[in-house]
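Reviewer 2 asked us to include a model.

Predict the structure of this chain.
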Amino acid sequence: MTNIIIPAAGIGSRLRPHTHTLSKALLPVAGKPILGHIIDRLVGVPDLGTVWIVVGFLADQIQSFVTAHYDLDVRFVHQSELRGLGYAIHLALKEIQGDDPLLVILGDTIVETNFAAFMAGPDDALGVKEVGDPRRFGVVETEGGWIRRLVEKPEIPPSHQAVVGLYGIKNTGLLRECLDIVVTRNQSVAGELQVTDALQLMVDRGSRMAAITVDGWYDCGKLETLLLTNRHLLDQRAQRVTLEGSLVIPPSFVSPTARVEHSIVGPYASIGDRAEICEAIVMNSIVSEGANIRRCVVEDSMIGSNATVVGAVEHLNIGDSSEVGFET
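Predicted model (structure tokens):
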């Protein structure tokens, strides 16, 4: 069996104000919470076992969403101290019995890959991708396709191969042992215990760790990348929406429970449940459930749940239950 760990305890400070009231993993993108996209893709994991979700801030929201929408063997691990990704995985491994294979997928990252192929080899594997500026990621240095060095958020990166937040571990016992060492030493980077340090210890102890290129990597950690991910996922939807009295330009998503009147929606717009769009233009934006947009232009924006926007606007990032008006 393959155990899954999804760390989703972060507070999402780069996505405020939305994450003041909603877990980062539940932010909507292309008509579904980020976590929903992640769990939906687990169908490709060979011999799927238990899904362990590490929760912290607003944990009850995540638990309610998962239990309401998925019939899987899911367990929740509570992380009271936000001490980094390494600590989150360490807590989950304390709950997991045995040393079955392990797949770790970050709770704010959507990865599109063939999980069966990714987990097929006998060795550990990390998903990587070439990026222009790798300084805010874990970075790997390879030799013949095998990882020999990992560095977390380096000022001078040894390569442009960033770790994409996908970890396939066959030597689960060694990872547990190395994470225990990192936690005991309190070996931190910027105050956080990093899984990259434990992975480096594994390499130093003889683990063969493959670097597998993953092209389908969509970071949802900040507004700009969330909107880019929304665009990509909408591009995959062939569904065309027709609404009487309004124009929906594909690709877009409009919830069946939303009300759209005398408006233009799209391209690249996601309109959530019970949202109301009236005499407005909404482009390249995410409008959350219950939001009300009237007589305005909204572009490159994210509108929180039950927020109200009235009047001429071009770019907004407002949280839940907010109200913005420009009419006199």
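DSSP finds seven helices and 29 strands in the chain. The chain has two domains: 2-229, 239-325. We have added this to the supplementary material.
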